[in-house]
Structures are given as structure tokens and as C-alpha cells.
Write a structure and sequence with these properties.
Order of helices and strands: HHHHHHEEEEEE
Structural class: alpha+beta
Shape: elongated
Distance between the termini: 44 Å
Strand order of the largest sheet: 1-2-5-4-3-6
Radius of gyration: 26 Å
Oligomer: single chain
Strand content: 15-25%
Length: 206
């Protein structure tokens, strides 16, 4: 039953899988391979059956295969046949590829959610950068948009100088996202680098 469930989950895009709490990628890859093979088999049989039924009515007998290939009713069968083959190949490489139409649906949903989220963040305004005395911070960046990748591992490059994130706080509109930075010690390893400029906020949503 667990493997059957994994086969069903393997058709979903990663975002939906995570929402369901499914994390066994290795087990999922095997299930995706099996479901991809079955997808190929089922839609391949439907394609062949459709061609056999169509062949006697083809306008040009010798070219019946090409005629059937260009019929709109054969396109979904051919699409899912080749998709199954692709999913099987990807699974052989240890990854689980879902069905492509659901990826399209997930992308549209993500775009819509991002649009709704942006609409609640207020207007775009230039970041402000304030200097500190170094006791708690050396830079205080206030922005109208959050920087989701700014954490303790991120290094910020500003005016040819490296900084690390001390903390993130909530300020007041129109710049409610406040980040405190201080000079990064030379001994610390740079794991992530962000080239910062106060007007970058205008390109974050492009």
C-alpha cells in the first residue's frame, strides 16, 4: 500500500509532495519509474488501438500512420506516452518527475500566490541604509520587501565591503523589513554572497 501511495504521489510536482509531507525521494524515484512505465504501456496501447481503428478509414492508406499522428485526438495519447518514457528515464537517474500538466498548474498557482503576496506588501520604495556606531551594528538596512535568503549564512557585499547579518527586525511602513549588519570577520568562510544595492528592490519582482 505504501508503494502504491508513492506511485500516486510521484505524479505530483515537488511542491505538492512537500505539502503532503512526502520526503522519501529514493523510494519515490522507484515508484516514479514504475508509474512512468505503466503510463507508457497504457497510453501506448490506447495509441495503437486508436491507430488500428483509424487505419481502415485513412484517406491515404500507405500514409495512415502519419495521418493518425496529426489527428488532435492522438496528441494526448502520444504526449502521455512520451511523458511516461521521460519519467522512467529520470527515475533511472534517481529522481522523481511528476506529470507535466500538474507542473503547469503548480506554476500558475505559485504565480498567483506571489501576486497576492506582493499586493499586500505595499508600494515599492527605495531602501534606506543607515550607519551604526558598531556596538550593535554597522549598517541598518530598511526595506519595503523581505530578503528571504538573508540569514546567518549570507554575506552581503556593499560598497566593496563584506557584511554579515546580525539580526532581522520588523519596522514601520513603508519599510517594515529591517536588517542589521556588521563587518564580516576575514576568518569566516563565505557560504553565500549577495551583491547589495539600495535600489535592487525594484528588480526583485521582475
Amino acid at each position: 500500500m505504501n508503494f502504491l501511495y508513492a506511485m500516486l504521489v510521484s505524479f505530483l510536482p515537488p511542491r505538492t509532495r512537500r505539502a503532503l509531507g512526502h520526503r522519501s525521494e529514493e523510494h519515490l524515484a522507484a515508484a516514479a519509474g514504475v508509474s512512468g512505465f505503466l503510463e507508457m504501456l497504457i497510453f501506448g496501447l490506447f495509441y495503437v488501438k486508436g491507430f488500428v481503428d483509424y487505419a481502415p478509414h485513412a484517406f491515404i492508406g500507405p500514409a495512415a500512420f502519419l495521418e493518425y499522428l496529426f489527428l488532435p485526438r492522438s496528441w494526448p495519447l502520444a504526449f502521455f506516452y512520451f511523458e511516461g518514457g521521460l519519467r522512467l528515464l529520470v527515475a533511472m537517474g534517481g529522481q522523481a518527475l511528476g506529470t507535466i500538466p500538474l507542473y503547469v498548474v503548480a506554476a500558475i498557482q505559485a504565480w498567483h500566490e506571489a501576486r497576492v503576496r506582493r499586493s499586500g506588501l505595499g508600494p515599492l520604495v527605495l531602501d534606506t541604509v543607515e550607519r551604526g556606531d558598531g556596538s550593535r551594528y554597522e549598517l541598518r538596512i530598511s526595506s519595503c520587501r523581505p530578503r528571504r535568503n538573508w540569514d546567518k549564512w549570507m554575506t552581503v557585499l556593499f560598497e566593496e565591503k563584506f557584511y554579515e547579518i546580525v539580526s532581522a527586525e520588523l519596522g514601520v511602513p513603508p519599510r517594515p523589513y529591517v536588517y542589521l549588519l556588521r563587518t564580516k570577520p576575514e576568518s569566516k568562510v563565505i557560504r553565500g554572497l549577495h551583491h547589495y544595492h539600495p535600489d535592487e528592490v525594484f528588480s526583485l519582482e521582475e
